[in-house]
Amino acid sequence: MWVEIFCGLIIYRMFRGFFRDDDVLDVETSDSRALFSVANRLEKLYRGKVYVGLRIPDADTGSRQNIDMVLVTKGEAVVISVMNLSGFVSVNADGSWLCEGGSKHRAERLIDPVVETKRRASILESYLEQRGVALTEGYLSCKVVLPHPKLSNIHSSYFPSEVITYDQWVQLKPEPKSMFSGWMKGAFCGGKKEMQESIHQKLNFILGTAPMWDRLELKGNKYALGEFLEFKGKREDIQALKTIKRSKVSRLVIQKTSMFGLAPSTLQVLYSPRDYRSEGASASEWKEVTVRSSTEVLFQPENSTKVRKFKVSSVVSLCLTA
């Protein structure tokens, strides 16, 4: 009996290892998942547009600064940092945070996230001015969101007003004054409605064309931000995909065509030509190619030196920045 059980476990692990996509399981996507979860909820609550994974040029350092997201609504813009922390968080006298007992199983000290977010907001404001948009006082503000349900904050009163704890996050309501009332302060000062609408349109255009990370969506509601490098696979598949370049394509999605049969399993790759019009490319402009499901996408996640390989069968969509 024990021999049969042992053999069964071996067979189960062999089959599991054969069908498992190790690349997908190897990627820690919880932070990215939290990022997009926060973005989606904010768009629904405030009927605005959220730009995720921005890489704004910093004229002072000559480098690009990462901004988690910017929420744009009529009359305001908010730079938001998402801290997917778990465990116990306390605020030190110098404003830094100490996170203990979290998923990383070690104490982690963080430079004051509010100060860092304000610094990035200042860089964004300078970038907007360089592109011809001068925001009125109070138009741009900052928030730090702590969305992890397993976060316990010690002396929460020590947190600045810009910090939204998990308990506050789950209680947000669609009404503008429910939680983020401070965001509206000064938004309409010294300007006419037409001027505010003009700024709103320009702001959406600039952020929509600003540098940002490529976004890879994987099966299982997983996301990764980083840089798409290239496709790998059979020569005929790579030849079919040669037109998919970031200079020409903004987004591609993967659709299943066949799973079984004599021919190798294939997948349809639908891709949208890059279009800088506000309405984007129409459905009729989408094109498609068919490739083997074994074709791979080479992708380098942000803050990682390791290039990851994903089979197209594990990919839902890929957004490419210009």
TrEMBL record:
Pfam short name (any one): NERD
Residue ranges constituting the NERD domain according to the UniProt record: 30-147
Source superkingdom: Eukaryota
InterPro entries reported in the protein's UniProt record: NERD
Protein name: NERD domain-containing protein
Organism expressing this protein natively: Juglans regia
